[in-house]
Amino acid sequence: FHIRGRKAERIGLRSVLTRVLPLPLLLLLLLLLLAVVPSCHGCPDKCLCFSQTVKCQNQDLDAIPHSLPSHIKSLFVTGNNIPPVDAKVFDNLPNLVRLDLSNNRIQNFSERAFPHNNTLRVLNLSRSFHNYFFTDGVLNGLLSGNLIQLTVLDLSSNDILFPPENVSASLLRLVSLNLQNSSIISILNGTLKAPSLQDLDLRDNSLRNLPATTLAELGLKPGDHMEGYHYRYEINSDPRLANLSINSDA
Ligand SMILES: *[C@@H]1O[C@H](CO)[C@@H](O)[C@H](O)[C@H]1NC(C)=O
Ligand SMILES: *[C@@H]1O[C@H](CO)[C@@H](O)[C@H](O)[C@H]1NC(C)=O
Ligand SMILES: *[C@@H]1O[C@H](CO)[C@@H](O)[C@H](O)[C@H]1NC(C)=O
Ligand SMILES: *[C@@H]1O[C@H](CO)[C@@H](O)[C@H](O)[C@H]1NC(C)=O
Ligand SMILES: *[C@@H]1O[C@H](CO)[C@@H](O)[C@H](O)[C@H]1NC(C)=O
Ligand SMILES: *[C@@H]1O[C@H](CO)[C@@H](O)[C@H](O)[C@H]1NC(C)=O
Ligand SMILES: *[C@@H]1O[C@H](CO)[C@@H](O)[C@H](O)[C@H]1NC(C)=O
């Protein structure tokens, strides 16, 4: 509303409007108008946009929203029903640093979801795989996806039986990997040989055997009682592995 002019005219207009609509209803309309204005500037439906962050949470979305503001650094699309993460969905977000897709039902993750020169550092996929059957596909897409800057990966609370292979080859800068509350029964040779990994969370899994080679990969020296192939091991009872912090010089 552009209301200009002398006081008398303003009063006149207001009284005309309040005669047509009661004042509370008028205020409500004004508020609605204000609430709608930001979405005219590129904020997708069902999302909240802040200066560098967009949040689309618990909205029953079945796709990553299109037309996100291209300058954003953080995107939260959590608690929805996203089944596939398609090719190129993040191509128009060149500055994206943090992506949270936790609590979804992802079945497929395109290896071309992110632009080749993306700068993503934090990726949260906690409790976001649809179920066990889709785990390998999702992880393969993810690990083939050029996430060269990724430092934090949260894969907790998914039905993962084995930690993803080739983490070391794909995620060269990975510092923190959360695999808590998965269904991990074993760690295959070579899986955790990520060069810069410092934090590995393996709490609440079904691990029993932890081969000495795996400990060595993690920069740990097995104690005497751990030597040999057949030792049994309660992962949850070893505080070092409850929340493993490895320094490269440890
Ligand atoms: C990932 O999301 C879950 C909740 O959905 C949260 O508890 C956890 O802290 C998040 N992890 C990271 C690394 O942000
Ligand atoms: C995932 O996507 C790829 C490529 O688009 C397709 O070949 C594959 O069948 C899909 N997998 C599932 C489980 O939908
Ligand atoms: C990424 O690559 C595209 C072309 O492939 C280019 O237009 C863009 O400027 C690059 N972005 C960065 C951050 O290097
Ligand atoms: C553990 O993961 C399952 C899904 O695999 C989830 O339903 C459950 O809530 C998670 N538990 C905790 C404590 O996060
Ligand atoms: C891991 O990488 C090796 C060599 O780069 C490749 O031969 C193998 O198929 C990869 N494994 C998976 C599960 O992608
Ligand atoms: C793991 O690697 C070690 C030596 O690098 C080897 O002795 C052992 O047989 C391997 N285990 C498996 C299951 O491949
Ligand atoms: C491990 O513990 C340290 C300190 O106790 C904490 O700062 C860090 O966030 C924890 N890492 C994970 C993956 O839980």
Automatic annotation (TrEMBL):
The keyword Signal applies. SMART domains: LRR_TYP (SM00369), LRRNT (SM00013). It holds the Pfam family LRR_1. InterPro entries: Leu-rich_rpt (IPR001611), Leu-rich_rpt_typical-subtyp (IPR003591), LRR_dom_sf (IPR032675), LRR_TM_domain-containing (IPR050541), LRRNT (IPR000372). Residues 1-42 form the signal peptide. The keyword Lyase does not apply. It comes from the Eukaryota. Keywords: Leucine-rich repeat, Repeat, Signal. Gene3D superfamilies: Ribonuclease Inhibitor. One of its GO terms (cellular component) is plasma membrane. Residues 42-74 form the LRRNT domain. PANTHER family: ANTIGEN BSP, PUTATIVE-RELATED, INSULIN LIKE GROWTH FACTOR BINDING PROTEIN ACID LABILE SUBUNIT. This is LRRNT domain-containing protein.
